[in-house]
Amino acid sequence: MPIAVKDYSWDETETLVHVVVPLKGVKASKADIFSTDDYLKVNFPPYLFEVVLFEGVDDSKSEAQVGDGVITFTLQKKEAGLWNRLISINSDDKELMKSKRQAAIDAAHKKAQEETRRKAAEKQGRDRLALKEQMRLEEEERSRVEGVKESERQKATSDFEEWKSKELAAEKQLQMEEEETLKSSPRIMSDAADIFDTEDVVQAPVILNTRQENNSKVTSGKDVPPPRSSASIQVTFTPRVFPTPLRESKVEAEEEWLRKQAEARRIPEIDDPDLSEEEKNPVWLKDKGDGFFKSGNYLAAVNAYNLAARLDSKMHAVYSNRATCHLKLRNFIKCIEDCSKALDLLTPPVDANAKSRLRAHVKRGTAFCELELYIQGLQDYEAGLKLDPKNEQLKADSDRIRTIIQSTVD
After folding, report:
1. pLDDT digit string (tens) for 196-236?
2. CA-CA distances (angstroms) from residue 76 to 17, 34, 83, 317?
């Protein structure tokens, strides 16, 4: 049973009450202090200090200090004034003290619950405010990010539209320059004979039912209109040997084509005393043959081309133009041989030699049809259509060849 402490001391002022409880040699760490607005209790086994205050105090503003072997209570009175006594109930009344103790404990428990609820409500309020603030900050950040994205999107769209307009303007300017180039100067060709190749073969209808009709479709070089006057213009793009745009997939083929053209232009060394210096130049001989062809002297043109081919066997234009002469002279077998030789030299197939390959196919196809080898001729005309799909004359001639083949089969 605990020992009640009776030797405590106290004093008061109008607003404060001071109570000093001796610890009687017990360590301060073992002292259990409990207080309410009207009840004080200190339990430090085997001692017990317990009093019911005369009047109420403000427990929230009161304090207890432990030190120097005593516990000092400083209690804030709820109402100012002198009590003249500390306790209201004698500690000898066990039952009354027990009820007051229980009431104090219940009041303290209730107060603790209310404090817990108050703190929980305050914490919930702070959490709600913090959540709202976080949501507000996130919304501001989201709005800022969306604003930056929209600004970047508008800038990218504006830059793209500006680039697109510049590209369209540049493309239009380049197209105008190319049109001016085509109007002011003749197409780039290896020689003048390629011009009459186009007039004589590609644009001429072929495949008639009689030799007389076939002869009427072969036009003479005298009907060729004079070339347009040439002129020069200043271009801003990088000059290229090929008239087509650069394609990476065709770079090797174009380089191979240029190499073969360079080899074809080399003048071979021939020691023939019967030939003049001019006659040892295959390019001069080819030009000479072109002149004979335009004047209608096809045999002389063939002789000139023969000597040019003997001096330089890699000039495809020589074989192509000689094939035209053989077609005029109705030497169809030789025409086929020369066209095949020209096609062999026109490799690799690139855009720069597409026109020459087209003429070779059409001339060889014409020769095959003249020999009534219509299937072989149709194959050459179809190859020509692949090179020039929009050529209506080639389409019409191909249809006529198919009609002849079908009538022959029937």
Report:
1. 443 333 333 344 344 444 444 444 445 667 777 777 777 66
2. 7, 16, 13, 124
Instruction: Return d(Cα 266, Cα 318) in angstroms, integer.
Output: 14
| Residue whose entry in the numeric block shows the structure tokens 């609820």 | 117
CB 360 within 8 A of CB 354: no
Angle at which helices 316-328 and 282-294 cross, to 10°? 30
Q: What is the CA radius of gyration of the chain?
A: 59
312 three-state secondary structure: coil
List helix spans (H) across 57-93: none
Residue 246 tokens, joined: 């650069």
Per the listing, tokens 């074989």 go with: 319
The length of the chain in residues reads 410
Here the tokens at position 238 are: 């990088």
Nearest 10 degrees: CA dihedral of 340, 328, 204, 369?
-60
In this structure, what token pair is assigned to residue 267?
């003048």
Strands 39-44, 47-52: pairing is: antiparallel
Rounded CA-CA distance 259/325 in Å is 28
Contacts of 54 (CB under 8 A, 6+ apart): 83, 85, 86, 87, 88
**Whole-structure pTM value:** 0.39
pLDDT single digits (tens) 1-25? 788 888 888 999 989 999 999 988 8
- Grouping H, G, I as helix, E, B as strand and the rest as coil, residue 160 is helix
